[in-house]
Specification:
The chain is mainly alpha-helical. The chain has a domain at about 30-90. It has three helices and no strands.
Length: about 90
């Protein structure tokens, strides 16, 4: 049974550079596709390789995932403000 504590490093960016590495999690296409079928030792080895890269990317302005989340949050805050105004208008 696979170790459930080994989390998928995907950050939902899924864009690949010329070298074939995901710009979000720094895994190869094959590693992304086969993640669920990989043995635990292989997953740990991949995580050991990509975590420092992900941490470094996050430190440089937050990375793409952070910007994507900021956009989503801003959109939701705007919608929440409109809903509160509508609710206030109802009395």
């Amino acid at each position: 049974m696979p170790d459930r504590s080994i989390k998928d490093p995907c950050v939902k960016v899924c864009k690949f550079d010329a070298a074939g590495l995901c710009r979000g999690c720094f895994r190869t296409r094959a590693e992304v596709r086969g993640w669920k079928r990989l043995p635990d030792d292989d997953r740990r080895a991949i995580l050991a390789r990509v975590r420092p890269l992900m941490d470094a990317a996050a430190g440089k302005g937050g990375g793409k995932r952070r910007r994507k989340l900021d956009k989503k949050i801003a959109k939701l805050e705007k919608k929440l403000e409109a809903l509160r105004a509508e609710r206030g208008a109802l009395g």
